[in-house]
Amino acid sequence: MANKKTVVIGASDNPARYSFQAVNRLKSYGHEVVPVGIRKGQVAGLDIHVDKPEVNSVDTVTLYVGPQNQPAWYDYILDLKPKRIIFNPGTENYELERRAREQGIQTIEACTLVMLSVGNY
């Protein structure tokens, strides 16, 4: 499996959160992971960025932020110019999906954890 640099939006240091599990699983599968969230912390030995860091050569943005909180992230996500955005369950957002597709970004409504486990990440 090729290394796909992935920005996890909504990263958390809470082991009960799916974003925590996703960062750990992505890292264990050999992907470069950039966790971004609203609270400082660490997950999988990585600092959670709270400042919307500049990241180059992004393959995937995977979302763990509900649609009601996504507008504050639109510009950041689109400016990363990822190849694709994964909308995990509960994060589906027609407006962001439309804007992404207009910029040539693939959008997928799926679960990152399932995609990794079945080998189609």
TrEMBL record:
It comes from the Bacteria. InterPro entries: CoA-bd (IPR003781), NAD(P)-bd_dom_sf (IPR036291). Residues 4-116 form the CoA-binding domain. Signal peptide: none annotated. This is CoA-binding protein.
